[in-house]
Amino acid sequence: xxxxxxxxxxxxxxxxxxxxxxxxxxxxxxxxxxxxxxxxxxxxxxxxxxxxxxxxxxxxxxxxxxxxxxxxxxxxxxxxxxxxxxxxxxxxxxxxxxxxxxxxxxxxxxxxxxxxxxxxxxxxxxxxxxxxxxxxxxxxxxxxxxxxxxxxxxxxxxxxxxxxxxxxxxxxxxxxxxxxxxxxxxxxxxxxxxxxxxxxxxxxxxxxxxxxxxxxxxxxxxxxxxxxxxxxxxxxxxxxxxxxxxxxxxxxxxxxxxxxxxxxxxxxxxxxxxxxxxxxxxxxxxxxxxxxxxxxxxxxxxxxxxxxxxxxxxxxxxxxxxxxxxxxxxxxxxxxxxxxxxxxxxxxxxxxxxxxxxxxxxxxxxxxxxxxxxxxxxxxxxxxxxxxxxxxxxxxxxxxxxxxxxxxxxxxxxxxxxxxxxxxxxxxxxxxxxxxxxxxxxxxxxxxxxxxxxxxxxxxxxxxxxxxxxxxxxxxxxxxxxxxxxxxxxxxxxxxxxxxxxxx
Length: 504
Ligand code: COA
Hints:
alpha/beta; binds coenzyme A; seven-stranded parallel β-sheet
């Protein structure tokens, strides 16, 4: 017990301790909740579960705003309990995905750097309760976040009420790793004074208006481990192609062996690509990313990465057991920032990031779909990929050339949903090779994309589409009546492949 109270160092808040059940009872139908949590890290774990329990006895709905996806099955339990009216800005959970696609609750899929601006400018629903996970509360009333920051600073600043979950299972060694900076209102702010990946520009915690703190709850539960799939043969080959591209950039004098600060998105492919750098000649690397997955810690341990800036740390169980007890070892190599800063266009452009994100599909001109399966069904969300792609020095998208046992070609005539337009996409990579699209006209891009990236079984089919489209002319030739035939064929026949066109 005393251990717990030692984590509330601000004496003014020591009488605020309540049970999770009591805290959950304050939440009313129609309210908007701002929860900490970003890609399964640093999410609040007790009050959400009590809300789910309440739903067994009464009917209510709330808006759930977070940093990104939640762990501890919270998104799943929320979805099953039917208590979500609107969810933003990101989720990655199959049950919630089903409910979204069935139209049972609303999902706003926006760039992760935008939530803070929209809240600050009073555009979206104001937050009634910010519910934030903390390692501790400092003597001067700052919430020390845990393994992610997400939107917690903005939630705390703009919410009407605050509930804090102090998680005893989160290491006190996390204190000092965070850097909280609020850029202020648009039109009144100064340039963000961050010019190097390892700059610290803010506080180590979230300053609290203690009059807003309604309750403090104690929990004792680790984050959910990531479900990342280890690199396989194809993702390793993709990593090799990406590294060939980077080597060429060095040869051309545009990069050095230090490359440029790296951002890598969520998912198995992006993790594998970073992992591939371990045995490369690249060195003294820096990472300026949203999520740090296992591969970044492998790169730090291998002496390849000197410093990593992130918004959350999402690791496999094995890696958690290695990293969290040894945080001292990483202290001078790590910083956690709010997602508004980790994903800020101003910083991404200033630092000149190399940004690597995953596509579901891309088209023969370089438009990328990262979110919608066959144009309609939400997968996870755009996450930070748009923040980075639009502003990076190099916007790279990776994907396997086929999905679902070869029945889907990830390279199509026209993407069925556009997240990243041809104007924002520099390089596309599959296990077949890469296409560097920079400075190329649409008609120059097509042969590169088909020959270097498409799976051989789909190349003739793509050429047929393009050659027929060429007869109609245009800056970006298309056959509008056939542009989505690949997707509709898949939905009708279970495959995009026209057997007679398979290369032999
Ligand atoms: N059409 C339909 N389904 C496709 C597909 C396509 N063109 N390409 C891949 N898929 C399916 C795969 O078959 C797999 O399905 P399964 O879960 O049933 O096995 C699933 O999509 C995931 O694909 P996978 O190849 O395992 O890649 P991943 O784990 O790296 O995830 C994204 C890929 C695109 C879903 C994921 O990276 C994402 O959500 N990205 C958007 C957000 C983002 O980029 N954020 C970056 C900053 S954090």
